[in-house]
Amino acid sequence: MPNNRNRFSRRQFLGSTAVAAAAVATGSIAMPGVLRAQGAGVKLGVLHPVTGALSYSGQQGRLGATMAVDEINAAGGIKGLGKIDAVLGDAQSTPEGGTAEVEKMNSAGVACIVGGYASNICLATTQAAARYELPYVVDVGVADAIVTRGLKNTFRFGPGFGVISKTALANLAAINEQAGKPAKTVMIVHEDSLFGSGLAKLLNAQLPQQGFQILETIAHPTPTRDFNNVVLKIKAQNPDIVIPANYYNEYVLLARTMQQQHVRPKGIYSVLGGAASSYKFVKEFPEAAKYIMDCNHWFDPRSDKAQALKKKVEDKGQFFTYEVYMNYSCVLLIADALQRAASADRAKLTAALASSTFTGHVMPYGPTKFVNGQNEGAAPVNTQVLDNDIKVILPAAFANAKPVFPMPA
């Protein structure tokens, strides 16, 4: 995993290329034409929570971003501007940690920042970046408040709460309808930060409209080390469907505790499940993961580019998680905007992002189209863990399996 030493080595490399370029100007050394055309390089802030409670997701996000940077640089960098210098930052899984890194990155002269991951971190970091008119591309953070505050510097590549919850509940109703409506009751288990609480609020408002009765909504902190009492409550109320809304570690622990206590509802249906669409979860705990459905971020399984990236990530011994390919796509989006702006100037880059119609990502999205900072070309998909693999079950255009519901006893 990249660390701060990488940052300095890249800067030293760029410094050495600048010396070489000077040598070209004096005629003392011959360099390829592509390097003669290069600029001094572009600094890109890569900000994720790589320590603390969200460290796994943060490290995965950093992996995706730096893989894209390395690929761009290997191909010669940004034409006329030079190679990308990734300035790495650790939000330490807190908004305050993220804000401190934005201040450092601004002082370092980055042209743009990508990442943030968690909604509460992204809310703080985008606001901090706005003070410097510093463009910021949000990788994951789904709270709609991130893009409804009128910040001109903020661009979210993925879909937000509103779109995801609407899609998820419509798909849940459709799956239940197709199965003969066996599910009528629901329990929600959510982490208590902005992500989980916001999602639980939406679910409580929208599930009854789809014909489901909510038996109870249970909040928990992140981190949580013991879900026995929560699962005992689920067992006592015996809901048809359990909807978890939590980050990776808590999601895995909840699912494993349900398995150990032999709690088997008709379905475990996640909305932005922290582990439900994770190859790591499926590999390490296949029995706990079996048949879990999720509405989440996902790559385009029909894309050769996505499949090649998946193989490259797995060849590194890593898992191909949504944090990886969303950050990878975000960096490609920024590189495209830099190319079109022909400048690392923040105002010009902001304008180029705002007018983006980028299609070179690996997501099941249409062309990028930012409206008030939100990419309206973005959409989630539904997945299910089947045969120790993760299959797309909806929408039909991307599906490679049909849903299994209710879960077999």
Account of the protein in words:
It is a single chain. The longest helix is centred in the first third of the chain and has 23 residues, at 4-26. The protein has helices spanning 4-26, 33-36, 55-74, 95-108, 119-130, 161-178, 194-206, 228-237, 248-260, 279-284, 286-289, 304-315, 322-341, 346-354; strands at 42-48, 84-90, 112-115, 136-138, 154-156, 185-191, 213-220, 241-245, 267-271, 293-296, 370-371, 374-375, 381-386, 389-394. By secondary structure, the protein is an alpha/beta fold. It has 14 helices and 14 strands. The radius of gyration is 22 Å and the shape is globular. The two termini are 41 Å apart.
Uncertain parts? 1-37
N- and C-termini, Cα separation: 41 Å
Structural class call reads: alpha/beta
DSSP helix fraction: 40-55%
- Main beta sheet strand tally, sense and closure: 7 strands, mixed
Supply Rg.
22 Å
**Proportion of strand residues:** 15-25%
Mean residue pLDDT: 91
Q: What does the overall shape look like?
A: globular
How many helices does DSSP assign? 14
Q: Within the largest sheet, what's the order of strands? A: 7-6-8-9-10-13-14
What is the succession of H and E elements? HHEHEHEHEEHEHEHEHEHHEHHHEEEE
How are the SSEs ordered, and which strands pair?
Blueprint: H1 4-26, H2 33-36, E1 42-48, H3 55-74, E2 84-90, H4 95-108, E3 112-115, H5 119-130, E4 136-138, E5 154-156, H6 161-178, E6 185-191, H7 194-206, E7 213-220, H8 228-237, E8 241-245, H9 248-260, E9 267-271, H10 279-284, H11 286-289, E10 293-296, H12 304-315, H13 322-341, H14 346-354, E11 370-371, E12 374-375, E13 381-386, E14 389-394
Parallel strand pairs: 1-2, 1-3, 3-4, 4-5, 6-7, 6-8, 8-9, 9-10
Antiparallel strand pairs: 10-13, 11-12, 13-14
Helix pairs in contact: 3-13, 4-5, 6-7, 13-14
